[in-house]
Design brief:
This protein has 15 helices and 23 strands. The chain is of the alpha/beta class.
Length: 472
Amino acid sequence: MRQFNQAYIDGRFVPVHGETVVHSVNPATEQVIATAILANRDDAKAAINAASRAQRSLGQTGKSERIEMLRQLQAAVLAHADDIRDVTIEEYGAPASRAQWVSQYASQCFARTADILQTYDFTRRLGDAVVQQVPVGVSALIAPWNSVAGTICNKLASALGAGCASVIKPSELSPLQTQVTARALHAAGLPDGCFNLLLGRGEDVGDELSTSVDVAKISFTGSTRTGKLIARAAVETMKRVSLGLTGKSATIVLDDADFSVVVPQALAVAFMNNGQACIAGTRLLVPRRRLEEVVRLVRAQLATLPVGDPRDAATVLGPLASREQYERIQRYIRRGLEQGATLIAGGEGRPEGLHRGYFVKPTVFAHVRNDMDIAREEIFGPVLSILTFETDAEAVSMANDSIYGLQAYVFSADAHRAQQIAQRLEAGGVLINRTTIDPCAPFGGFKQSGIGRENGVSGLEAFLETKALVTG
């Protein structure tokens, strides 16, 4: 069994001082595959100190130096792509196709930021002022368990491109993915302390990052509940905060769409990453008069959906990441039934033929009301709620009737009509007649889905402060 007891601080792998032990479990087999000792508050302080020392020189670098560092990271992470793919399957249960995508996306984050820097102007003249974009300073990058390598690399690329040293805290539920990612980043040979990486719990490592006077910025991706705790702690030292939080995304299918094409796409966005995605379209809004047709198409599609071994290239749905996630989904399925929704596919328990592992049946409810828990709360598993509307205005109202506003999807044969709908949706991003995001487009949420934006120029500028020099 693999054992981990190190953090990456000041350019070296060093033993941690914590005593808490966590176990990594293969979700497909329920077997323990690794143990890890978590870092503690003292380790977090050491990482912050290392980043603070590095910040003094990193903050003075020019574009060419940062571009070179980003290219080095791109090459190093790409060289470790197979390792990233394999541990994402083994520790997280991501289907092979998803894990392969993550392994490539991680290196591409650095390439995209390097390209942005080529033409980005850090100094502009506005009236009598010379306006500079300067590094915000040492940044804490906190990544969730459902997207470890991808989130780390995306945040690190923007921070480094802006000239910010960082302390990275992935979820403590991902020691294998964290170790492989750390080795890949280390291979780039960057100056000591430019980035530091350690596994730890929120109550000590996370709290130290949120309250330290030496940390200027926090970039967090995770639940709204945790994001609120971080924001409250960060305000004491007036940290700049970016929060990518909970989603409950709506997919609107208008009556002129080709349902035979669109319904499978809607299921794909609902069940992406085994349903464990903040942008999953878990509320499907369809015309009331077409509900029976939608139900028929859903059942036909799910009958052919491969669920099983995530190592198998044919698998579309693998296991959930943990027993806790499995049990959470079972509770929501029961709640949907208790509150009067109609189960049209799936249900409680494992899929037929799977007797171990945290596999759940891809589950779809119809006759869902927007006041039901399954329509209002982020379930974070392959559970889809179908709601119905009569008019475009009702569809928009229903989609916006949520405390969240991260992502939305609109399908229509009429591009202008779809655009009109999209303009009225309260979401940080709307995909029209497509299911894949543009990695250069700003990403973030309205309402309780977050604060700030990541990706592209917006992601870079999240790590910059504006400074005006006015000469008399």
